[in-house]
Structure formats: C-alpha cells, structure tokens
Specification:
Elements (H helix, E strand, L loop, with lengths): L5 H12 L7 H16 L7 E7 L2 E7 L5 E9 L12 E3 L2 E3 L3 H20 L6 E6 L10 H6 L4 E7 L8 E6 L1 E10 L3 E2 L9 H13 L14 E9 L5 E2 L2 E10 L5 H14 L2 E9 L2 E2 L5 H14 L4 E5 L5 H6 L3 E4 L4 E2 L7 E3 H16 L5
Parallel strand pairs: 3-6, 3-7, 7-17, 8-16
Antiparallel strand pairs: 1-2, 2-6, 4-5, 5-19, 8-15, 9-13, 9-14, 10-12, 11-13, 18-19
Helix pairs in contact: 1-3, 3-9, 7-9
Bound molecules: zinc ion.
Length: 370
Amino acid sequence: MNLINNDDLKFLKQLIRVESTAAHSENLKVVLEMVLDYFHQHGVSAPKEEIHEKSEKYLLLLSNNQDLKQDIILLGHLDVVEGEGGFEPQLEGDWLYGRGAGDMKGPALALLKIFILALKEKLDLKITLVLTTDEELGGENGTKYLLDDLAYQTKVVVVPNNGKNINTICVKEKGFLHYRLRASGKAAHGARPWKGENSILKLMDFYYQLAKFYPEPKDDNQWKKSINLGYIKGGTALNSVPEQAEIGVDIRFTEKEEQADLIDQVKSLSGDYEVEAELLSSGPVLEIPQDNVYLLSLAEIIEEYSKASVDFISSSMASDARFFMAKKMSALCFRPETKHLHAADESIRIASLEDYAFIVYQFLKNFPNI
Ligand SMILES: [Zn+2]
C-alpha cells in the first residue's frame, strides 16, 4: 500500500511554496483551502467539513461523524515559522527540502491521506482530522480553541510532533513558562549616565540573577530545567540612557520542579529588581503512562512493521498534544524522519513519511476497543 504518491508530493511542494507564517495571516486560510480542495479531488466528502476562524488564525476540521466525542483525532498544523528562504521546495534523493516539509506540512498531508482512506474504506471509528495554523505561536487559537470552544473530546490524539523517527514515541514533555518582563528607568544624556537610570541594565541584573537558578543542560540527554533570553528591546541611541526596556524569557521545567514555586521565584525576584513580570502563557509537565493501551498498541504496530524496537523518549519541546494531555486524553507523539526543523533547509525523508502514514493507518485499523 502506497499512501503517499507522486501527486501527493507535487501537492506538498505547492503547500511549501505558500508562505504560511503568522506575518501572512491571509496565507493561513489559503493553505487550508488548498487542502480542502485536494481532499475533494479524491472524490470524497466528509459529513463535517468546516473552516473555523479565531483571531485571524484558521482551523480546518474534517470529520466522518457529527459528534463531539471522537475515537481518534489526527492533529496537524500548516503554519511555519518566519525565516529567510526555504519556500522553494527541492527533492534530493529521498529527501524533500523546504520550510514546513517536516514541521509539519508533510506529516499533515499524511494525516489527510489516512483520513481519506478511512473514509473510502468506511472504517467503523469516529475520526476527525484537524489542521491548525497557529501551532508555532502556541496553539491558543487552534488546538485550545478546538477543545475549549468547540468542545471536542477524543479517546486519543495522534500528533506528528517530537521524536526522531518512526521508532521513537515521545511520552513526556517539559512544562514551560513564557514571560514578558519590563523595566522603567530614567532617561539622560549618554555622556552623563549617572543622571539617569538604565532600564536595560535593570533587566540584565534581574536576568542574570534569575538565570543562576537555571544552570544550562549540557545536551539533550540532561533532563533539567532551562532558561532562555529570547529577545531584548530597548533604547534608541548609543548616547542616551534608555528609559524603557523589555525582554522575553522562556523557562522550561521538569517534574522535579513545582510550577508554582518557579512562578513565585520570578515574582519575588522581579519585585527586588523593580521589574514588571507578565506571565504570557504556561503549561505543566505532561506524561503519558507507559502502560497506556493506545501507546502499547502503536508501539506493537511499529515494531512489527519496522522490525526494530521502539524507544520511549522525553522531549524539551512542548507540542499541541499538551492541550489534550492536560484534559486527560491520550496523546501519541511520533513522527517521520526530519532534519533541521525551523531552518531554511528543513527536510523530510519521503520513505519515512510513507512508513508513518502506513503505521498510523494500521493503528486505526487495529484500534484498541476500550
Ligand atoms: Zn515547529
């Protein structure tokens, strides 16, 4: 069975060519319409075909039933991160290059093909395909909207996120705290800094103090909390003391820390340094138990198909699966083999994409009946 054919690759290239980034919100709808169009080209239609909009972010929902309670949701996203280049796809050997090839236009297309096949074969399962366009921004107007506003529920969600290849399933994600921190100072001429109060330096002092509590992990294998100073804004000229400044900080933590303790620490430290801290978003550490029925079933299918064992791994990255896991729904995070995600030379291995599609389809056909 070949789930990904030449027409699919041609279509995938068309998808990659559309700059579907947050800065081009009109393109977010365009890619979803392209997918819906491509879906219809297969001579099928679904009982539910909807495009939703929330805050200029769009979501495509295709369902083989009218209910809110699903057996399985196939979840992908078609937005990509901003960046220079990478929007002209190229096939080199077995690898397709292009921004979004792996994260996750390629895998999203695989999910569409699985959904089409499930419709054609009339699988006796409640299946919904959801493609969002705000995953790279945090998923608030996509996956969170699906669960909180549209009130969808599912026994299990399949998300082609995290993991290294089809033989690794991500079972644990770090929690995170995203902060915007602002400081105010007093402007003065750069020749007389003692007359002013430097807002950038205030933030720097605060940050270095905070970062002391987050010694940097040496590599992927160190399961430890971490901190990143993502951006810094402030100042207008080299010869003036900046009055206002802002930084963005990304904290990731493990099950060894209490989220509330970390928040308290930022609160007290920001008070000491006269910094205004705003928690933009947060998420807990999430874990799927290793005896989860869906996880075991998927692992068995992968092992049988690939003739290789499955590794259960932890990831520093949070995915949209967290919204499901936070509501106690099972999530299966694994994906095809990809390289250089979020870079202009991002790529996906086509054979691996085919394997992925085949495995997920087998999972559907052998869906654990509980
Ligand atoms: Zn991404």
